[in-house]
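re: that chain from earlier
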Amino acid sequence: MKPQTEREAGSQPLPFTLYPSHFTPYPLHIARILLVTALFAAPLAFGAVQTWAWASLAGLASVLLFLWSVGCVEQGALKIAWSPLYLPALLFLLLGTIQFFAHRTLDPSATRESLLKLVTDLIFFFLAGQLLATGTQKIVRGFGFAVVVYAFSLAVFAVLELFSSNGLIYWSVQTAGWTFGPYVNHNHYAGLMEMLIPVGAGYVLSRPRDDPMRTLLGFALLIPIASLLLCGSRGGFISLLVEVVILGAMVFRHAPMHRRRRLAAVGGLGMTVAVLLFFWMDTGDISKRLGTITSITHSPDVTLGGRRVVALDSLHILRDHLWVGTGLGSFETAYPAYQSFATDLVYDHAHNDYAEALAETGLAGGLLMVAALAIFLRLGFKKLGQRLRHEVGWIQLGATIGCCGLLVHSFVDFNLHIPANAAWFAVCAGIATCKVPHLLPQRHGDRAEAESRN
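^ sequence. v structure.
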């Protein structure tokens, strides 16, 4: 399906978006390849939590921005696909910058590091819209296919490692805690899969009904779902359920009446097979752990109780630093003075991204987060009936649901402080909310293709 040119659309001017043209500069091709390569490589480096890994991401983000700029110069015009989320994102960055230079932070070095990571994520967020969401149908299709293959491959690796490595990452690296796949923490593996699975599902649903790859790729997604369950993350399990409900509601609402039963049957069959696959591989311990979700408020698990207390303590930090908080990245420094229980553990994060962000940025940051969340939800689910006629619309829906899943998980964990997961979240948010040219009226041929896909 090819996008309309200005001549085909009539005299009506094109929206202010980055339209694919007959000429795509070579730097833009390289930038797209490097962007996807960075996304795929970051989780493999233990989630890019080590200094060399996240610093490499920051350096690569700068290179990507430079390549995009060079490509725009070669095109002869600076065309930006605008997202209303750019404004609160930039204001949040400005708030952190003021904290650092005005000495309104309890830990200047941690704030400087957080600002570098934030800039990196904002670059990924921006370039996701410029290089992926507004690309040609071939580019969008290629990205969706790559996500499915990547999620399947990573899940197979994680499952094999689970049953053969004795807790070692890559069968050689010994770490403390509950590892899974390339991640030191199994909850962060779940956070990544919460984004990959919906994007992959969006791609599968975007394929025409007569495409033989549609069924094959749909079955390939069952392995990532089973691996998410196998990792034993209760927050990840709840987030996955929320994603399934959202996706089912959106597809059911916007699908033709005669296809709703078929979609419900296929979706139910897929989830059943994924669950059966999980039980077939599970030794019994993981299913028992996931079963404690029903009694989570009375769970004897110290970790769960500790997370709730830490989140409440974080609100006490907000009370004493009401307007601009203690400074980005300063939670580890600020928290000991407010810790309400004795422990030998050092809490570098609150295990609640919202409570931690409020403690570090105060009401100013809280208002920006609320505004950004409202804008995101409005853009992510806007005019779905029209958008789902196009492949990019399905990818956008998957990216939106992936972000929603991670936002739910953020109530009990700190996935947004894991550089690899933060980069994926930024890219998904950029794809989900960027204005793209698929809202133009369809030609007859394009309309027929969309109907065959649905």
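Residues 137-164 form the longest helix (28 residues).
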